[in-house]
Specification:
The chain has about 290 residues and is of the alpha/beta class. Helices cover about 40% and strands about 20% of the residues. It has two domains: about 220 residues, Rossmann fold (3-Layer(aba) Sandwich), CATH 3.40.50; about 45 residues, no CATH class. Helix 2 packs across helix 3, helix 3 packs across helix 7 and helix 4 crosses helix 6. It comes from Albidiferax ferrireducens (strain ATCC BAA-621 / DSM 15236 / T118) (Rhodoferax ferrireducens). InterPro entries: AB_hydrolase_Est10, AB_hydrolase_fold, Hydrolase-1_PEP, Hydrolase_4.
């Protein structure tokens, strides 16, 4: 299907945000809002979000990718993924204002963009959000990182003859060993808690609550060659808040074994686009 691309300027709490709208000739009733992860802007690593938007638009889905406040070409002060719900709401508003035929949206996010999508749902319960496409969600904590390193890095290293050879020859610094011991302690006992208290749940728990309460479809795509994805699975399988997460009734889960964090190869990027269309968007009642 043919499509066009146009600049979209829209307001968010007094600041002007900039996005790029990929608009099919006959758009589906479901639109897509791409939520950028990390300290980057709407193009994405290796033009990932540009190419994704064009692939989805060619299949008939309008896609808006945009810069948060304080990033790229948008006004305002920089903020992290825990403070962008107003930006996401403004983007959904802008998409529907430009294309009134769009009745529902799917939020597509990579890394802490996926986390931001869940936090938005937790804060707003926006009925317009019918689906979530979550790629390598970010759930980083001191404990989750330690567990992932012990399970997927240190365990592997300790099984390698090369490691022990270097250790015996003094080529592995002994000062690195306390770090291993510290990670093992944190992995099995948890991080030390500070004396400060807060009424706000950790962002990981808010993500889990949103996931459990979400009534739409969830597509989870994980990279096989990515510690963020491994950390997510480790956290989801050990933290009580995530007990029912991976058995969500409308969850579709897929793993690309050779893909890195941003699906940077042509093969993995193309496959991620195809899976988004096949499993993330092709849900009953979502097409015009």
């Amino acid at each position: 299907m043919t499509y066009t691309e146009e600049t979209a300027l829209f307001a968010c709490q007094g600041d002007t945000l900039l996005g790029i709208l990929a608009k099919p000739e006959i758009p589906a009733q479901t639109g897509v809002v791409v939520i950028v992860g990390g300290p980057q802007y709407r193009v994405g690593s290796h033009r990932q979000f540009v190419l994704l938007s064009r692939a989805l638009a060619a299949a008939g889905y309008a896609v808006l990718r945009f810069d948060y406040r304080g990033m790229g070409d948008s006004e305002g002060q920089p903020r992290n993924f825990e403070a962008v719900s107003a930006d996401i709401a403004a983007a959904i508003d802008a998409l529907q204002q430009r294309l009134p035929s769009i009745k529902q949206v799917v939020l597509w996010g990579l890394c802490d963009g996926a986390s931001a999508a869940l936090l938005y749902c937790h804060e707003t319960r926006d009925p317009r959000v019918s689906g979530l496409c979550l790629l390598n969600p970010w759930v980083r904590s001191e404990t989750s990182l330690a567990r992932t390193q012990v399970k997927h890095y240190y365990t592997q290293r300790l099984r390698q003859k090369e490691f022990w050879t270097k250790l015996l020859r003094g080529r592995v610094a002994l000062k690195a060993l306390p770090g291993l011991v510290q990670n093992i302690r944190i992995a099995f006992t948890g991080a030390r808690r500070s004396g400060a208290t807060t009424s706000l749940l950790p962002f990981q728990h808010r993500m889990a609550a949103a996931w459990d309460a979400f009534n739409g479809s969830i597509f989870l795509l994980l990279s096989g060659d990515d510690y963020t994805a491994k950390e997510f699975l480790e956290h989801a399988s050990t933290d009580a808040a995530w007990t029912n997460t991976l058995t969500h009734p409308r969850l579709v889960r897929h793993e690309l074994q050779d893909a890195d964090h941003t699906f940077s190869s042509l093969t993995s990027r193309t496959k991620a686009e195809e899976l988004t269309l096949e499993k993330g968007l092709q849900q009953p009642g979502q097409r015009a």
